[in-house]
Amino acid sequence: MSKKLQSFIEIAAESHFPLENLPFGVFKPRQGPARIGVAIGDSILDLSVLEEEGIFQLPEFQDRKVFADDALNSFLSLGRPAWRKTRAILQRLLSIETAELRDNAALRDLALYAQREVTMQLPARIGDYTDFYSSYHHAHNVGTMLRGPENALMPNWKWLPVGYHGRSSSIVVSGTDVRRPHGQIKAPEAAEPAFGSTRSFDFELEMAFFIGPGNSLGDPVPIARAEEHIFGMVLMNDWSARDVQAWEYQPLGPFLAKNFCTSISPWVVTLDALEPFRKPLPAQDPAPLQYLRGSHESTYDIQLEARLQTASLEAPHVITRSNFQHLYWSIAQQLAHHTVGGCNLRPGDLLASGTISGPTEDSRGCMLELSWRGANPLQLPNGEMRKWLEDGDTLAISGWAQGDGYRIGFGEVTGKVLAAAE
Amino acid sequence: MSKKLQSFIEIAAESHFPLENLPFGVFKPRQGPARIGVAIGDSILDLSVLEEEGIFQLPEFQDRKVFADDALNSFLSLGRPAWRKTRAILQRLLSIETAELRDNAALRDLALYAQREVTMQLPARIGDYTDFYSSYHHAHNVGTMLRGPENALMPNWKWLPVGYHGRSSSIVVSGTDVRRPHGQIKAPEAAEPAFGSTRSFDFELEMAFFIGPGNSLGDPVPIARAEEHIFGMVLMNDWSARDVQAWEYQPLGPFLAKNFCTSISPWVVTLDALEPFRKPLPAQDPAPLQYLRGSHESTYDIQLEARLQTASLEAPHVITRSNFQHLYWSIAQQLAHHTVGGCNLRPGDLLASGTISGPTEDSRGCMLELSWRGANPLQLPNGEMRKWLEDGDTLAISGWAQGDGYRIGFGEVTGKVLAAAE
After folding, report:
1. Nearest chain B residue to A169, by CA
2. What integer pLDDT is reported at residue A294 of this predicted model?
3. Which conformational region is residue A47 in: left (phi greater than 0), alpha (psi within -120 to 50 degrees), or beta?
4. Known catalytic residues of A?
5. Tally of domains in chain A
6. Residue B375 CA to chain centroid, in angstroms?
7. B-chain residues within 8 Å CB-CB of A289?
């Protein structure tokens, strides 16, 4: 895991985007349509320009243009061998030892952008979005609040990765403001619900992965092949209205409490870039059923933190630190379970982890847990208190895998809470 | 509501597709790509041919071709005024009194197909699919089985149209076989769940509506304008695995129990065609909150029936008769509720009713209710018994609004149950 690769592009030591990373995203330059690029240091390499130059001579591309597009879906559909070859071509091209781009000022001018000069967009057209509930600590904390510690987990929780279908139309890219939603709310002491804006606006620290080729309807993906269908991962903030959720969610699950907005980070970090950070999955007891058992179930060591910036705080304040490793179920198990009844996944579908909470109080992944439903408000450095997010608050989640002298980073997903509409 | 319109195309009295209907769908002829048409009697009128001929000179089309497409999405995005004008043009063109197509044998040859000679496809690219739970009798029956008659309905049920996000990737068109899915099942007496194919395979008799222009994120659709965003309706069968559902659904709702397949009928019947069959909505008590109150909440009188054909039955047997009017919540209320927190709907999104059960035992909309969880198996005319659907069974749902001498029909949604994969 020590730093080996060097680019002719200058990359700061703390950068999330060294040559080892090369995450894929969709960006719109000041001029011209959106296209696909990879992040390198503070720059972006425009893959549509390289494609036009004939850099990618891969049989998988079949003479199609896949990078002059405003979404990764075509590239996602090509599968892991094509992803790996593309990555290898790019690592060679950006290496300090390769002259092809390094010494071609005209091509560099065409193909390199400063990240600060472009607008990032959603990485893919997301067909279906699924949200799991795979953090033991999160599920246990929430269950404890609702039903007490003895009955915190539902009987099914350790047998299957509980999940539900979310709303794909309202997934937005990092930096999009989010308006406090209205909904039906029933106060515990009230006889009837009332209509109003949420009084318990929350974030959820999550990660999510994009589907590659996917499967046909009726044709499950066995767990041993699950990772062939996973392109890479992003950070996610699953904004939530807890009072709306409490009133609406029985018996069919969350609906308006979640579907008003979900934010993701713009750069998709590939599983190939994360490979050096693979770790064993936490022990699973009871042993999962056969279809959820791989030969070596694993996860990734990805450090996560959420920072809150209020209108009056001098600097963003870290309110929680968690890790992707805390999840009980692996992404391969989630995918195998999702398809075991025959449900088809398509390129660009998004599957999310659910809130990622750790075992300690300072690693909880949402305000619901951090403030224990408002009973223990968070105190910020300037003395402000927070039970929930308030108007004007900006919540940012960042994440990275820490190597020896470099980081495979995800950048961040950020969003500011706007006051409810009149 | 009496029969007024006559076409030069012969239309049987019992046809679902008289000149008053003109439902839109996507069909693939033996030669050439899929395109958009309307059903008329046993025929289909190819709108892409008419568009090529310059029949639709509407400002809303803005010189775009909208009918030479394998999905209705572009047409849906145009909105009600364009839908109405298109419908008026087609009713005039197909009228016995209009010579333009009637007397042009070459154009008739080009533009008319026999329905039996084409393959119907899904009418639209469905971005997001939502399923409501809006039948009082269905919710009450299911709740009674689970919690007894006193606690049958959750406290929220009469205050808001309960709904959840479903899976859009696995929505298929009528005629597609459906394979019995595998999943985790925990028998009531068992200590642990086991993996196997469902033993309680069910259908759900539903209807669903397609979204037109839709709304921007953060911009709710007021109930008074809801119908501007509803193009038309189809029949739906929400296939369900009840044993999988019972084990998985808490606390986030149904997942694998539903997402293996959902079938819809191919012809979208417009709200304009249904207008003569508008009826008052059943009384709502308590009175809904303001955002769910229109000036004249209404529904439609649409007769529905489900027919079961087993391998040994001589003819399909009607196992239930219901009506769209039995629903407690209107489609306008469903749409207003869906968007009230800011969730955006897009052209081609699909919103379904949930199982439509009536007040009587013979109007229940699924096997779960018809056999009361297996306690009262259905007896078929040949002596066969059914608690649930069995391999080889074909379930067909049909529906129509009955006028004086004509029917505004939906055709049917049908599917055959295949044995589970090995």
Report:
1. B344
2. 86
3. alpha
4. 138
5. 2
6. 29
7. 184, 193-195
